Amino acid sequence: PRTIRLADYRLPDFLIDAVDLAFDLREDGATVTSRLTMRRNPATSDPAAPLVLDGQDLKLTGIALDGEALGANRYTVDAEHLTVTDLPGVFTLDITTEIAPQQNTTMQGLYTSGGNFCTQCEAEGFRHITYYLDRPDILARYTTTIVADKAKYPVLLSNGNPVETTDLGGGRHRAKWEDPFPKPSYLFALVAGDLVAVEDSFTTRSGRDIALKIFTRRGDHTKVDHAMRALKASMAWDEQVYGFEYDLDLFMIVAVSDFNMGAMENKGLNIFNTALVLASRETATDGDFQRVESVVAHEYFHNWTGNRITCRDWFQLSLKEGLTVFRDQEFSGDMNSRPVQRITDVRRLRAIQFPEDGGPIAHPIRPESYIEINNFYTPTVYEKGAEVIRMIHTLIGPERYRKGMDLYVARHDGQAATCENFVAAMEDASGTDLKLFRRWYSQAGTPEIVVEDSWDDAAGRYSLTLRQSTGPTPGQPDKQPLHIPFALGLLDAQGRDLPVRLAGEAAPAAGTRVLSLTAAEQRFDFDGLAARPVPSLFRGFSAPIKLAPQPRDRLAFLFAHDSDPFNRWEAGQQLATQLLLEGVAARKAGQDWRLDAEFVAAIGRLLDDPALDAAFIAEATALPGESFLADQMRVIDVEGIHAVREAARLAVATALRDRLLAVYRANDDHGPFDVSAAAVGKRALKNAALSYLGLLRDDAEATALVLAQARGAQTMTDVLAALTVLRDRDIPERAQVLQDFYDRWQDEPLVIDKWFALQATSSLPGTLDAIRALTRHPAFTLRNPNRARALISSLAMGNPLHFHAADGAGYAFLADQVLALNAANPQLAARILVPLGRWQRHDPGRQAAMQAQLDRILAAPDLSRDVYEIAAKSRA
Ligand code: HT7
Ligand code: ZN
After folding, report:
1. Alpha carbon of residue 106 to chain centroid
2. Number of domains within the chain
3. Considering every ligand atom, which ligand is closest to the CA of 830?
């Protein structure tokens, strides 16, 4: 397969000013007629170039130039293009194609879901609808006419504003839509179906009324209140924080149950995976509610960062995605507990991006090449991309960041821009030199930082020496130093913040100070100190780095005292990591090991600290996860990590049993349901206590509590927390409780996804056999991405113990599923395959077993580009 390179970017030879699309939707297919109003690009280097349009899986049935049918000698068609020669400077091209949405299982282009028509055009889906210059730097005005059966498809939607609906007689009707904003083809959308709308409105700061509509299948409309609230909150937040006002008169969201990703920001017509728009107390957890809120915000925020200013090419994807993730994270921080939001975001980065950055598919946030662009919607482009924007925000401060955004919009509104354009705007508006900072865009890998300190008592001077290095990644053996924001606090012996005064400066106020680390090694001297301070390093996770282990007494002190909540949590996690890894080493050496009693006592003190937020306590008292621990080991000890972590959890539960029970009761709120930060925090803390108590196998009271909550709780958060305990308990009640849950929720697909995921993440022996059996369950299908992910990715990403079973059975199972999906849904197949590529830090037996499955995949006939790229890079 061909590799596409950033270095090969060329301006388009032609421009498209207007696109008039007409869709005739039928049960046996669809006819698409497209009129393209085009001209040669005055900036092209080849004024005689032929027109090469992209198109795949299309049947061309008509082509006319300026109204005249085109002779066969003027054009050629191959599997991926329609080429037209001898074109004038300005012209219209009429193209008719036949497509088969009902047969389209790839979920790219026009396809059907639950009997309704919908589209997914990012990144290159539009070429599956009609021949087009399917690249993001071609911006055109669209009109869309849809004709369909009126009874089957009463709702006909596209981008922009509705201009006309007509009953055509004979049971058919027509709707016409017009989008006044020029847009790239990846933002095109069409929906036709039997849907119901929940309607609301939003008045913008300039006084315009915007109609808001959320469309779902009948019955699901009762679950969109939260999404609608989130939408209105996002609209208000974007006006207040960024000055961005919505531009059309109508904003629509459509929920579809077959969708490869979370949601899509099509202009004026967002299309959402049902999992990210529907939420009710009975069917969704608090985590689901928060994800709905953040994804609704994310897609809405794209209207400015992505749609009004789009990407010049797909290598610039992080321009819209990293920036928009940063924006949605900040929005969620304002809507919920800010420290817990940061903890959640960093956990996610470490869980999914750090392993990617240290593995075979590591790439910079602006990649330099790809085979299949769908493979580059990655945690690096999204989550690390957001950290890069956050670092700019941290370095220049919120006011100058806002000036930078204003300048970026003033310069590039209505254009297809680059990451370089964004950084230049930030640099120009802030007056800060970001030359070195730009390396974050081109260099892959997670920097590692070692810090040494020293104290000069006579001079009252404290010094920190920082060393940064980034390991080799594929194609980048040698790394350069990065510009790293270093947020620092210095604490006195009582845990109070001291002024962070660089030698020679006047005293600043006490608190966090942001310094710049720009060299491979750099020393910072701090004056005006009466005694050696305790440093709180990289507060708020001011950069996506790995910090070398710090002394335990320092971590214990920060865990008890740091005024920066993120670093307080972090100190506990780092301390626990050191202790648990010591346990893993001891187990391997056949030695006894017990969790440090002082650490258990520190958790006990946190549990009922009235000064702390409940949600924060829940986070701070949880031990680091198995995957995080694995990521800290040179050679991963799969069983050792699981055994030691479970032993440590049991030690906490045993020692703190009565306090945990008291915390459980104090936070067991039976008042009216809401998803305020306070209510969510109480449920999180109650269920954190339950997850410890549930480990006490011989404790009848604890077990009864778990069973009662599993059977009788009123919220999905509570039910699932109890089921998660039972998932790992081999007790007679387990099977019945799971069956009852299935019976109750069998008509709610999103809840049944949870049922599959729950069983796929069990630590009990025989889990892989249970998963194999579940693939034969009548409710299981690989064709629905949510269902496939619920069973398969939950095993591969959420159950290290069984996925990495020493006999390699987990790997073989995953490879089977990848091959089964390869043809039908290559994008999904490639995504679920990724964990098989993480063999580098496993023992030789597991390495060989993982490689054997990659070889098996690579040897399969008719491998899709998507699967080939991930498998080949993973095997290299
Ligand atoms: N911008 C959207 C990306 C997306 C996507 C990409 C490839 C194939 C299917 C897809 N569905 C959505 C989502 C977002 O980041 O907002
Ligand atoms: Zn996005």
Report:
1. 21
2. 4
3. 1
